[in-house]
Amino acid sequence: MTVEATDTGSGPPPEGAKAPTIGNRVQHVLHAHPSLGPLVVLVISAIIFDLINGRFFSAANLSIMLQEVAVIGLLALGQTVIILTAGIDLAVGAAMILAQMVMAGLALTSGWPVWLAIAGGLVVALVTGLVDGLLVTRFKVPPFIGTLGTLGVFTALGLLYANGQTLTPSAGNFLLWPGNLIKIGSFSLMTGVIVMLVLYLIVGYALGRTAWGKHVYAVGDDPEAARLVGINTARLLLSVYVLAGLIYGIAAWVQIGRVGDASTNISSTLNLDSITAAVIGGVSLFGGRGIVLGTLFGALIVQVFQNGLALAGVQDLYQQLAEGLLVIAAVAVDQWIRKVRT
Amino acid sequence: MNDGSPANARKEPVLSATALRKAYGRVEALRGADFELFPGEILAVIGDNGAGKSSLIKCLSGASSPDSGEIYLDGKKVTFRSPQDAKDAGIETVYQTLAVAPALDIASNLYLGREIRKSGLLGSVLRHMDIARMRREAREHVNRLGIQTLQDITQPVETLSGGQRQAVAVARAAAFGSKVVILDEPTAALGVRESAQVAAIIKQLRDHGLPIVLISHDMPSVFELADRIHVQRLGRRAAVLSPQTHTMEDAVAIMTGARAA
Ligand SMILES: Nc1ncnc2c1ncn2[C@@H]1O[C@H](COP(=O)(O)OP(=O)(O)OP(=O)(O)O)[C@@H](O)[C@H]1O
Ligand SMILES: [Mg+2]
């Protein structure tokens, strides 16, 4: 790997008598650009998988990978904003499933106009975020515990509301809009993927360019310091959880569109997958560090490994193994670059 | 109780407090502490470790709220519910813990909580920051204060030395304090040259008419800088001394309780 070759000179030059070692320079570059590591991993692993199986870079396969990544990418986006505040959300999947059942239920069972049903689902998702946010800010419950509790609550509510049904919108229903495919030659781009990318741009902008974003990083970095400089930390955290909830609601819609129906029978690993994507993407679980672009790379890496290993004919078991090793490696790298000093 | 030099007797204090009490669980950090800061003066606050100096200024800066007692700003009773309230009133503080965000760069830290926004809707609605202007003004500001140790304004604070971090906190308070600047041990981690620089900044602020509260264990610099010295002992104000009429030995004796005030 030639990470140091991409040094743009923005990493602070280490001063003093000691000449910087290559390790030092890599550490500094990664410290300044924490999403560089995941990008390198993404590119290299994609190339290796293509060498193993030439179908990897085929238009059909790329299309499928992007479709697969849309939902988890959105969940990981909400998760990332929460992790940046040194929090964690264990209820992402449950919140999404609940919102999804409400959307489909209101439209198909209760006969609401589809747009109103979608809005209703988004409001429910927003409320799940509000509940988590109030637990963390008003009742001072640690995010890990609070969202562990709401994981159970939201899961149960989703199951109760769904009542064991699978709701299938008929073709052309606006609920399925995110699943529409846009043909570009032999490549087909799902509308939901565009939705995801737009949301990444919006959240990336808010985090990087607005005062709100600075405060997210400051609160995650050192909440007491943030309070002392005059940031209303409770209000900020609440806004973060509500935003995350809204994003999970949009993920719910994309999920209905991609799968073509709404059921509670969805992978139970969504929570951990969203955390995995963020962590592999260089977002520090200690808060205050990382960017959403890294999370996008992280989500893509997980997808590339699952898809690439499957194409290579490797068992599921090894996909899990690879994912686990990636997480450990990412956390180890994070610990290392956090020690950076000039 | 001694109420300071006669010159101040006729003036109204800018910031004052009466009978402040603050308990942390069983520990009584403040037991009826009084406080007075007069216009244009440097007031040093000295006292043993645990005497309640930081607890006192945290009440004055809105970082914590006293269990009882009153605080007056320009003679008017004030209640600070948050640090932001005190900041809005013009009180800027360097905390002993510094209160900086390590992962953010120097410019971001200087403007944390009061980011300069772009003009127009972009700034007012989206709170879009004018990063270039913040960096430019941060650099100018640091230069004006003569803080040479902060070279690259875009450097993350966590890569700075302890003394440089302290310089960031001091620069922030100096930049935005419009009524009172409070410094809780601002030179604790500083070398000789940097301490002298902070002393110069304190004088510079005083010369602009800003009253300053300086908490310090460094007796020589306290006696050099201060107009009056508030001695804190066991959660109360034990005495107010003047560097002209008292010696360092007097101050230490009162501070440690070896002699009554
Ligand atoms: N947040 C807190 N929780 C519990 N006890 C506290 C807290 N803050 C201060 N105390 C206690 O209150 C007392 C006064 O502390 P304070 O920090 O005000 O002293 P200080 O005069 O600033 O001391 P130093 O010179 O060491 O900074 C001490 O006994 C301290 O242990
Ligand atoms: Mg103290």
From TrEMBL, chain A:
Classification via InterPro entries: ABC_transp_permease (IPR001851)
Topology within the bilayer: Multi-pass membrane protein
Example of a GO MF term: transmembrane transporter activity
Main subcellular location: membrane
A Pfam family that the UniProt record links to this protein: BPD_transp_2
Annotated transmembrane regions: 36-57, 69-102, 114-137, 144-164, 184-207, 236-256, 276-302
Superkingdom of this protein's organism: Bacteria
Compartments in which it is found: Cell membrane
Gene Ontology CC: one annotated term: plasma membrane
Record CDD domains: TM_PBP1_transp_AraH_like
Signal peptide: none
Keywords: Cell membrane, Membrane, Transmembrane, Transmembrane helix
Record's protein name: ABC transporter permease
Automatic annotation (TrEMBL), chain B:
Species for this entry: Flexivirga caeni
InterPro entries: AAA+_ATPase, ABC_carbohydrate_import_ATPase, ABC_transporter-like_ATP-bd, ABC_transporter-like_CS, P-loop_NTPase
Gene3D superfamilies xrefs: P-loop containing nucleotide triphosphate hydrolases
Residue span, ABC transporter domain: 15-259
UniProt keyword Isomerase, yes or no: no
Name this protein carries in UniProt: Sugar ABC transporter ATP-binding protein
Keywords: ATP-binding, Nucleotide-binding
GO function term, MF aspect, one: ATP binding
